[in-house]
Amino acid sequence: xxxxxxxxxxxxxxxxxxxxxxxxxxxxxxxxxxxxxxxxxxxxxxxxxxxxxxxxxxxxxxxxxxxxxxxxxxxxxxxxxxxxxxxxxxxxxxxxxxxxxxxxxxxxxxxxxxxxxxxxxxxxxxxxxxxxxxxxxxxxxxxxxxxxxxxxxxxxxxxxxxxxxxxxxxxxxxxxxxxxxxxxxxxxxxxxxxxxxxxxxxxxxxxxxxxxxxxxxxxxxxxxxxxxxxxxxxxxxxxxxxxxxxxxxxxxxxxxxxxxxxxxxxxxxxxxxxxxxxxxxxxxxxxxxxxxxxxxxxxxxxxxxxxxxxxxxxxxxxxxxxxxxxxxxxxxxxxxxxxxxxxxxxxxxxxxxxxxxxxxxxxxxxxxxxxxxxxxxxxxxxxxxxxxx
Length: 389
Known about the structure:
Elements: H1 16-38, H2 40-56, H3 64-78, H4 82-87, E1 101-105, E2 117-119, E3 121-125, E4 131-133, E5 148-152, E6 155-156, E7 161-163, E8 177-182, E9 185-193, E10 201-205, E11 263-270, E12 276-283, E13 286-292, E14 298-302, E15 353-357, E16 368-371, E17 379-382
Parallel strand pairs: 10-14, 11-15, 14-16, 15-17
Antiparallel strand pairs: 1-3, 2-7, 3-4, 5-8, 6-7, 8-9, 11-12, 12-13
Helix pairs in contact: 1-2, 2-3
């Protein structure tokens, strides 16, 4: 099968600087041809780009440097293709890169909390000391698809994002572990133990849903112009009056916000050298568990009434028709009135919040924040609470 190789751009040197531009384009063309020979589909796209450039290149309208920029932009626009990015030096193939060692880290901090997502960064060191980093958070040229990530306790996706299950029972007392290998270099790997942290700002939101927005009113219809009369002094006749524009209709009122459900919060203390709070938040048939470090961590429970929907805009009144020309001229029609904007919907009712806490947990209640706008005041009850799990 023949490949559609890129035709060489027509380059005219108009000054000394154009000589350097020509060298740049020649090098770009050489790389494009090599890429086309290796990757048929890429070659076809490069051919289309260069034929387009040949058609639009005009030495009187376009400088050579602009043609080069357009070529590169067109390549990136037409190709989400990895081969082109590699040819342009934006990415590298690890299979073609000598590697001395690799190292993985969590740039956002040494630990990860239940329910948290944190990006990984892998640093690749070549034998000559040159350092490369992964794409994404690392902002480098190494592609995650050239690496294999294996995680235990935590989960890692194909873009190097590590996440921990929200349920603290799945990670409590365990150490998430990540292993990074390079399939093209079987002897190269790195590992990382990641501590689970609980000094994190957890949230549990059971707020009502937002109300629906009202529909906009329809615009009024413009009036029709009056008929033309006569301005002949021997046979005068008046112009007809323009008709009135119709009124715009009112905007629809927004719908009411949804009510938040009643919320039950139970708090127990997990004693030890570093005490932690066990918290369960239950509402609407759902139960969420949290393990919170009072030293730096917090839990915000929200059961606000949902916001009301926005009212629709009133329709514009139609314009009055123009009076016809005559002797005398007809009167213009009256413009229609604009419709009234719809009212915003009312906020939903906030859910009641009841906090039942063990006496041992009382000194740490300050790290639990409550919000139930448009609802009754929260209720606190002190009584023995057994360990929640």
